Amino acid sequence: MIDLFSRCPAQSLRLAARVLALCAVMSSTAVRADDPGHHVHQDHHAHHLMPPPSAAVVRSEQKVVLPPVGQRSAEGVNKSFAEFVGEGRPVVVNFIYTTCTAICPPMTRVFAEVQERLGAERESVRLISVSIDPEQDTPRRLKAYGAQYGAVAPWVFLTGSEAASTSIQQAFNVFRPDKMGHTPVTFIRRQPGESWIRLDGIASAERILAEVHGVAGGRR
User: Residue 88 has what pLDDT?
Assistant: First the structure.
């Protein structure tokens, strides 16, 4: 190698320059899992990466004025959003979209676990998953999505117009202009007239049920 560089210094310098340039490109495009500022673009539908299991769930309470907008369930039922929510039983709400590959699947699996843990009491709690991508999420697509997780009534998946979806997200203070920027949040209201409990982060089924039942441990 030393002999080659000594015989052809100009060619060797050009080769070395190309190697250095290639290394620089590889370094700038390498994906580092430990770099929180890096945005993954390989999957068009991927957004915020799922927080690690140890990430804390932040609890708060807020008042929500439900907007007078309509929604359509995966079963084709048309009602106002307030009608879907306004029953006397506890209501648990999250926001998802079917092409999401990051936080939506684990959030939906948590809802499926809540449904399973309720067992014979399943009818006593309304689960609502609101699409934030109504243009793509037709009732048929939402029905197929829910079936993947074993969703059954009274768990409903809702869609509607873009304007209606935006209004609902704004009412819950979760709206982001880009769907890929939305974060994991679960809302619980035990009965009409009460404030909504807001859980920021991937809340476990156990935590959600504790909040639904007003167990002291759910307030930690």
Answer: 86
Q: Where are the alpha helices (DSSP H) in the chain?
A: 2-7, 9-29, 81-85, 104-118, 139-148, 162-171, 205-212
Q: What angle do CA 108, 111, 114 make, to 5 degrees?
A: 155
Percentage helix, strand, coil, to 5, in the chain?
A: 40, 15, 45
Give the length of the chain: 220
Q: 211 CB contacts (<8 Å, ≥6 apart)?
A: 188, 197, 199, 218, 219
| Alpha carbon distance 158, 164 (integer Å) | 11
pLDDT tens across 33-70, in order? 333 333 333 333 344 444 444 468 999 999 999 999 99
Pick the closest to residue 96 from 134, 58, 61, 43 (CA basis). 134
